[in-house]
Amino acid sequence: MPNRIHAQKARLSVTAALLGATALTSLPSASVAEIVYGEMVDLTFGSEWVVGDSAANAVSNGGLVVFGGAYDLSVRRIFRWTEETGMENLADFNGDGTISGLGNEWATADTRYVYYMRTNSDGSILAGTASDGDQLRGYIWAGETGMVKLADFNGDGTISGTGLEWNNGTAFIEGISDDGSVVTGWGYNTLTSRAQAFRWTAETGMVILADFNGDGTISGTGAEWATFQGRPADISGDGSVVVGSAKGSAEGPYSNRDQSFRWTAETGMMNLADFNGDGKLVEPARSGPRITAGPTPYQPTAQW
Q1: Residue 202: pLDDT above 70?
Q2: 271 domain residue, yes or no
């Protein structure tokens, strides 16, 4: 990744020197553009549904597939771009230019937070967040299936709020495996008002990482310490490891401070700060006086 970034910067610098600063700003403001070997490439070419601002947010490893958000005549939509297809509106599954609101064309409303999207290595699968007019839903997209809601495990078009369909509130995507079969992120349950870290596969649905034994409750002890909230930050290439931060209750083993975690199916959520695994963190010993606030901000008082 660093080598690719350096190469891109070098290409930009060389192109700027060759073409001059004015050439780099000559594209329309609503365009998504890339400089490739000295040529300006307008990624919106041939995709006339984009009439407002657009921004690219994810790219495949080879750089041939780009995902992002763009405005049509009314709201922001999710797009996928290739040189052959131009900017495809992913909400328009059948490609007829309309979005019915039914089946795989459920993403009818303005999609905020389009930067919560992740693509797999070859750009064939995208996971992200889109709005159905009620909530921001986590989804996974493939060309054959269109946009499928992660929380709708049984595929009946409704989300019960219980069991594997616990995520009846908003959801945000933070990572996807290289092959696109595993997705991680965090979502809300409106009944509990808790944000839970999850790992999704088509076989398992949205599994809450803090519910280690899978009984539908989070005990607050052992591998189920994260009773309050969790937020993944990344996932390994094979999807077997999730890392992020989580928080338990004030009465729990780690208080209610954000704690770094590493999750696997075998271990559950391991608190990285708990080196010996005894379920508690050592408070630093205090020796000598410590300074606390006095009568005014300018009059500290020594306290033993």
Answers
A1: yes
A2: yes
Give dist(CA 140, CA 119) in Å, integer.
10
C-alpha distances (whole Å) from 28 to each of 25, 51, 115 are 8, 11, 22
Angle at 111 between CA 210 and CA 57, to 5 degrees: 80
Instruction: Give the count of domains, the chain.
Output: 2
Q: Could you tell me if residue 111 is inside a domain?
A: no
- Token pair belonging to 214: 């899978």
**For the chain, how are helix, strand and coil distributed in percent, rounded to 5?**
10, 35, 55
> What's the CA gap between 142 and 182, in Å, rounded?
13
What residue has token string 């992002």?
68
Looking at the DSSP bridge assignments, the partners of residue 87 are 81
Assigned domain for 68 exists? no
Across the chain, how many H-helices and E-strands are there? 1, 20
Place 285 in a pLDDT band, splitting at 50, 70 and 90: low
* Token reading at 165: 């369909």
Q: Give me the mean pLDDT over the 235-259 stretch.
A: 87
Give residue-wise pLDDT tens across range 12-27: 333 333 334 333 333 3
For strand 268-271 and strand 54-59, is the pairing parallel, antiparallel, or unpaired? unpaired
Distance from C-alpha of 28 to C-alpha of 50, rounded to nearest angstrom? 12
φ, ψ of residue 303 in degrees (nearest 5): -135, 135
Does 120 reside within a domain?
Answer: no
pTM of the full structure: 0.76
Range of the domain at 30: 1-42
CA 67 to chain centre: 14
